[in-house]
Amino acid sequence: MLDVQALESGYGESVILRNVTLSVRPGQCVCLLGRNGVGKTTLMKSIMGALKARRGAVAYKGADLTRRPPGDRAKRGIGYVPQGREIFPQLTVYENVLLGLEAGRGKRGVVPDAAVDKFPVLPTMYGRRGGDLSGGQQQQLAFARALASEPDLLLLDEPCEGIQPSIVEEIRDVIRSIKAQGATAILLAEQSLEFVKSVGDYFYILEKGQVAWEGGPEALNDEVIRRYLTV
User: Fold this and answer.
1) What is the pTM (predicted TM-score) of this model?
2) Per-residue pLDDT for 38 more than 60?
3) Do 43 and 7 touch, CB atoms closer than 8 A?
4) pLDDT computed for residue 215 by the predictor
5) What values do phi and psi take at 18, rounded to 5?
6) CB burial class (10 A; 0-12, 13-18, 19+) of residue 206?
7) Number of domains into which the chain is organized
């Protein structure tokens, strides 16, 4: 479904990613791990097209998206929940969710039930401004906005960062529900090792902007964790 080949990307004169290759298969939850500053968010932005690739390629469902803009990637079925949520604080909760439809393939102006069914508290807050929500509620809103586009691939960048444990558990349940349905693949960047091990099917560890290790859950042992993830 998603194939990243020898990707190089960065900011200005700084090269952050070097020769990164990874893949995500349909229905799979692939997790990106690594210490702070190794390039996880840069990789997410590069896959979504917010950062231009300097070298390498990004392919999705067999189509080369390397030079395609973010909007085109979204219309092809890639949803994105960025680090920091990036909701619109002056818009209502409902208006924020509606923005997800701009990239979607469903009916304009009609929020799919699946977008909010997984976060039942959101419809009760439709009239509130996004900026008035708690951090955890804003994360739920960002997640629902991405689901409104009915994506086939969902990019999740640090969805558990800075939110209360109860909503972390809710997000875990939502990811498991998406996996169980089998229609949407997930690429998840997350710091919490316990969280990713509870939902992930395959893992990539970044170090200094490169893939330093990859493998399945059974291979993600204490030695690997100590070498690449322990601070």
Assistant:
1) 0.93
2) yes
3) yes
4) 97
5) -135, 115
6) buried
7) 1
CB atoms within 10 A of CB 222: 8
Structure tokens at 59: 């392919």
Residue 93 has pLDDT above 70, yes or no: yes
Which pLDDT score, from 0 to 100, does residue 86 have? 86
Which residues partner with 7 through β-bridges? 20
Taking each helix axis from N to C terminus, what angle separates 135-148 and 165-181, rounded to the nearest 10 degrees?
A: 20
- Torsion, CA 16, CA 17, CA 19, CA 23, rounded to 10: 180
Within the chain, what is the greatest distance between any pair of CA atoms? 50
Token pair of 97, please? Answer: 């969710």
- Calculate the average pLDDT of the chain: 92
> What is the Cα–Cα distance from 64 to 54, expressed in whole angstroms?
15
pLDDT of res. 104: 59
Alpha-carbon dihedral 92, 93, 94, 100, rounded to 10 degrees: 110
- pLDDT digit string (tens) for 208-224? 999 999 999 999 999 99
Domain that holds residue 26: 2-228
Sheet of 185-189: strands edge to edge?
Answer: 78-81, 153-157, 185-189, 29-33, 202-207, 210-215
CATH number at residue 106: 3.40.50.300
Give the chain's length: 231
Q: Whose structure tokens read 């932005």?
A: 45
